[in-house]
Structure formats: C-alpha cells, structure tokens
TrEMBL record:
Pfam families associated with the record: Spermine_synth
Keywords, sorted A to Z: Polyamine biosynthesis, Transferase
Gene3D superfamilies, A to Z: Vaccinia Virus protein VP39
GO molecular function: transferase activity
Alphabetical GO biological process terms: polyamine biosynthetic process
Organism of derivation: Actinoplanes italicus
PANTHER family for this protein: BLR2883 PROTEIN (PTHR43317:SF3), THERMOSPERMINE SYNTHASE ACAULIS5 (PTHR43317)
Protein name: Spermidine synthase
PROSITE patterns associated with the record: PABS_2
Chain ranges of the PABS domain: 1-213
Active site: D132
C-alpha cells in the first residue's frame, strides 16, 4: 500500500512496508511505526517535570506515538500542531492504530498549520511544549524548520511557556551547541538518550524554566 500527496512542501508519501508504515518527504525518510519509544519518552520526560493536569502542546503529529502517550496522562488539554492535512487525515484511517484513536479524545485539539506561524498569532501558554518537527536541530528536511531550533525560535517557544514550564525537544543525534543555546534561552537542560536498533541513539532535551523570565 502506498499513498502519495503533493503539498506546498513537495511530495509526501505514506508507504506500507513489512507490516509497518513509513513517512517519506521528497524522497527523504522521516519516521516509521516500528518503535515509537523515543517519541513516548519525549512526552513522559516533559510531563514528569510539570505539575498535575498540565496544558500540553505537541509540535508535530507524525505517526502518532507522542499523542498516544499524551492521552494516557492527566493532561487537561492537548493541542497538536501538524502542518500536513494529509497526515491528520491518515490518522482517521490507516495510522489510527498507532495514535490509538487519540484524535477522538475530548482533551485533544488539532491545529493544521505551520507551528511558527501559529505561535505568532496566539498568546496561549503551556505547562509543557514537546517539539518533534522534522528530524531535530541539524538534520532538517525543510530549511524553514531550522528557525525553530535557533535562538530566535527558542525565544518564541519560551514565551509560550507558563512560569516553571518545560520545553522538550526530540533530536536525531546529540547536539551540544543546541543544548547550550537551549540552556541559555530557556533554562537547565536534562539530556535523555534513547538507544535505537541501529545507529546513534535518539536524544530528548528537556529544558525547564526556572520561573517567569
């Protein structure tokens, strides 16, 4: 099975392979449904540093593992921002088992749009933001996504955190320079490494605001 759509960002393919699904953008592999461990860690690590019934934002729906983990928590509200309408639609169909029907949870609201653009038009603030856009700070498929991981993008994200809030960022590799910038802009950073079957471990950076900055 293969579904192919053409968007403002080019070709997006959802492909079935060996009983799993892969998301491929312009010929570049983005993610698949084989594990999801690091995406779940992203959410757990962020919410472990918040109080009860946190308000959570997830940047990037992907194959749904982060959202599925989020609805298992006591989060009071979960907003998911996903730029590709096709990805959202696939979670009403073939990807629904991987997000575990989480789109139907009454706490969940899906925003279809660019995360940076959406942030510029809202004053909403969150107890935790989980950022899983593209492949992390330095391995981006789309150049415009690099802005989220630069100082100016991190300042924007910090401004949408409540006092004491948490920003958790998924990365495909260890990024010491990014971690240093994150510490400077947001606050103390905890680094979580998640072993994978092949290659270097995935990494989750968890930065906590010390207070109202």
């Amino acid at each position: 099975m293969e579904e192919r759509v053409f968007t403002d960002r080019g070709e997006l393919v959802l492909r079935s392979r060996d009983g799993h699904f892969e998301l491929i953008s312009n010929g570049v592999f983005l993610m698949d449904t084989r594990s999801g461990r690091s995406e779940r860690v992203l959410v757990r690590a962020a919410l472990a540093a918040t109080g009860p019934r946190p308000r959570l934002l997830i940047g990037g729906l992907g194959v749904g593992f982060s959202l599925a983990e989020a609805v298992r928590t006591d989060a009071s509200e979960i907003i998911v921002v996903e730029i590709e309408p096709a990805v959202v639609a696939w979670h009403q169909g073939v990807l629904r088992p991987f997000s575990e029907g989480a789109l139907d949870d009454p706490r969940v609201r899906v925003v279809t749009g660019d995360l940076a653009v959406w942030f510029t038009g809202t004053s909403d603030r969150f107890d935790a933001i989980c950022l899983d856009v593209d492949n992390g700070p330095s391995w981006t498929v789309f150049d415009h996504n690099t802005g989220l991981y630069r100082q100016s993008g991190l300042v924007m994200l910090r401004e949408h955190l409540r006092p004491g809030g948490v920003l958790a960022v998924w990365s495909a590799s260890v990024e010491p320079a990014f971690a240093a910038t994150l510490t400077r802009v947001v606050g103390p950073v905890r680094t979580v490494r998640i072993p994978v079957a092949r290659g270097r471990p995935d990494v989750v950076y968890v930065a906590s605001c010390a207070g109202d900055r």
